[in-house]
Design a protein that fits this description.
- The chain is of the alpha/beta class.
- It has 2 domains: 2-62, Up-down Bundle (Transferase, Pyrimidine Nucleoside Phosphorylase, Chain A, domain 3), CATH 1.20.970; 75-156 and 173-328, Nucleoside phosphorylase/phosphoribosyltransferase catalytic domain (Pyrimidine Nucleoside Phosphorylase, Chain A, domain 2, 3-Layer(aba) Sandwich).
- 49% of the residues lie in helices and 12% in strands.
- It has a 5-stranded mixed sheet. The protein has a two-stranded parallel sheet with strand order 2-3.
- α11 links the parallel β4 (188-192) and β5 (213-218).
- The radius of gyration is 19 Å and the shape is globular.
- The N and C termini lie far apart (44 Å).
Length: 340
Amino acid sequence: MREFIQKAEQGCSLTETEMMQASEAMFNERTDNEDIKQFLLALKQKGETVDEIVGLVKVVRRHALQIDATTQNIMDNCGTGGDGSQSFNISTCAAFVIAGAEVPIAKHGNRSISSKTGSADVLEHLGVRLDFSAAEVRDLLTHNKIAFLFAPHVHPGIKKVMKARKELGVPTIFNLIGPLTNPIELDTQLVGIYRRDMLETMAEALNRLGRKRGVVISGAGHMDEASLEGINHLSIVQDGKVSTLQLSPEEVGLLSVPNEKIKGGDSMQNAEILRSILEGKHSAYRDTVLLNAGIALYAHGTADTIEKGIELARKSIDSKAALRCLEELIRFSNQKELAQ
């Protein structure tokens, strides 16, 4: 571990292989906690590279719960968090809209870290279990198009590193890689990131991790979601190449709305917002979800333009297909709890 710390402290980047070796050392119970903290700080000060991100992701996934999903063309929509916007759970709500459009989605998420309410917090309040087994995840993806993968449950080996991260109290490379560590082999993905300087780096990481298509987005106001406030910055992965795009809500038929209008609250308030959207209530919350779900459906390839993706998202909500996906996930959770 010391050689990797020294290399990073000297401002030299690690190769993918070196990063995998360093990552395995971080997961080793014999590695000193202070060494892990020193290494993470050295990477942060140097600046994380594609090789380092990809190497760490591969090791995290190697230690994750193994889920051999039989469903084809699975995607995820997940952000890094950390934008400080205190918005409602946009990607969580959008996941049900995506599923309602018949796109299988393995929604990877966690409890609140930088926001008031994380995806796990709001789903738990709605009655969704957080401990689905690999077999249950496969079943849900097959029959309901959506399953929730609670990060601490599917990544039990990361507890040691979490201790070092908590003691450091500053963002590290682990804040970047969360959306990339879904244990399921994804074909496509929408990743949100508030750090605009890392857009193309994250897009290249998606490319290297084998995504057939993908979009990395940094929203107006530096949100880790697409925003109605103004210009959104996108990096698009397709056919092994990365391109960039800037997108305003007006370009896709939506009105501009300040981020202040989509603030959330605690898990109960955010659950109410999520349900109101899926039940068909028109609001800035709904339009924000339409934009994000539309971009996700474009990233998946179900829609060949973002505008068409938004139309599919609108149909998913108005037909109540998205709401049925939520209700089935709750029903499945309650059924299993009663059986235990």
